Each structure stands twice: as C-alpha cells, then as structure tokens.
Amino acid sequence: MTEFARSTALPYFEARRSCQTNTCYRPHTHDAFSVGVVDEGVSVFAGVLTGKIELMPGDVIVIPAEHVHQCNPVGGEWLYRMLHIEQSWAEQAADAQSPIDPFAAIAVYRGARIRSLIDRWLDELFEDAPASLLEATRDEVIHALSHTVPELRVTVDRNEHLLDELAPVFARLRSDEVNPSLDDLGALVGMDRYRLVREVKRATGLPPLAWRQNARIAESRRMLREGMPIADAAIALGFTDQSHFHRVFRAHVAAAPGGYRA
C-alpha cells in the first residue's frame, strides 16, 4: 500500500495513510492546512492550547498551518489518513460571511457528513484525480467545515507584532549552518536568553532550537518532494550526516526520508 500520494495537477496537495504503533511524533507544525481522519485505534492529540484530546475512530481533525501539535497512539495499532493542502489554495473556497472560520482554529468533527467528504477527497488524491475534481471537492469540504459546529474548537491567535519583532532570530535560525547560541540570538532583539526562549515559544509554540529543527524538516520535505537526493538535502540543511538527518526527520514525520521521497 502506498503511504504518501501527491497530486500531479496541483502544486502542493499531499496525502498520507499510515499505521503507527509507537509514540513517535515530536511537537511540530506543518506549513500547510491539514485534515486528518482516524480509521482505527485511539490516539492522543496535544496542542499548545488544546491540552490533550482523545481521538477515536471516525474523528476528523482540522489543523491550520503553523499550529503546533503532536498526535500519538494509545497502545496497539493506530491507523489514520492525512491531507496536507497549501492553505492559500484552500482559502480560495472560504466565504467571509460563514459562521465558522476553519483556518483560525484546531477543530475536531464527529459526524458522518464531514467524514464522508474527507474520505472522498482522500480517494481522489490517491487516484490522482484532475485539478477540477479536487477543487470541486475542496469547495464542498470548506463549505461543510464552515457551516458545521465542531465537537471541539480551539483558537490560537498569532501575535503578528511579536513575530515581526523576532524576525531576525528566525532568519538566523533558518540560515546558520550550526545551531546559534541563545545569547547570540537574544542579542539580535535585545533580550537575554531566558526571555528569548519565553518569547519565541509564546510566538510559535516552540522554543528556538526546536523551531529550527521543525523549519529544517519542513524545508527538507519540500526538497524531497521535488526529487532532491536525500544526502544532498541533509547537506544543504546543515545536518552533520545522513543518519542524523534520518533520526530528526523520522522524529517529526514518523517516516524515513526515503519512504517519504518515493
């Protein structure tokens, strides 16, 4: 069974169907709008503000881009499927007058209608359906998410002013070949190391070096999707060697780089 599928018609539309039996995900974000379906088993979802949420078979979880989370099985086998969609593309189907903004909060839906729409969308992507069909289903999904009250909804407000203030820190974290010191990062924005860690975590949900690892893995996924060899991606992103890259990638993605790239 193919674990990952990507649309040949749309620039960033990816799906995954996976089976996990171990706790393996670190807190992370996606640079995409994500929708997940639990098929079998029980898992615990944890976000910055959500606390721990138990997800059951049939549950649909919606995670906007850049929202920190992790989800791991509670004993036994856990089967799930996931869609990752370029958020700006998904937002084209949004209606400003809708009662619910699906791009502003982590939400859990428990209902047959939402589930059946996501099932159809996943099937279309694994069958590499044409763009017109994927877009038509997108419109139905976003409309349903915007007009259905979820079982749980947790809004995570982005502090744009703080993100702008910390922009030099994020630039260093992205560009430096080795981990910069917290003191050096703090000096960029007039903070000591302790305040820096608090403020970066308040702005992003992750401390500075965890944010750096997450950003590097997000970039590595883009590189691998575009066909870059694994060794070249590891070198380009400053990992000490391919095995180091493999360990960090698996901790964030719960898959090996080779399996993701295939």
Automatic annotation (TrEMBL):
Keywords linked to the UniProt accession: Activator, DNA-binding, Transcription, Transcription regulation
What Gene3D superfamilies has UniProt attached to this entry? Homeodomain-like
Cite the HTH araC/xylS-type domain residue spans from the record: 164-262
Q: Does the keyword Transmembrane apply?
A: no
Q: Name one GO molecular function term.
A: sequence-specific DNA binding
- Listed transmembrane segments: none
Q: Does the keyword Transcription apply?
A: yes
At the top level, the lineage of the source is Bacteria
Question: Which protein is depicted?
Answer: AraC family transcriptional regulator
Q: Which organism is it from?
A: Gulosibacter macacae
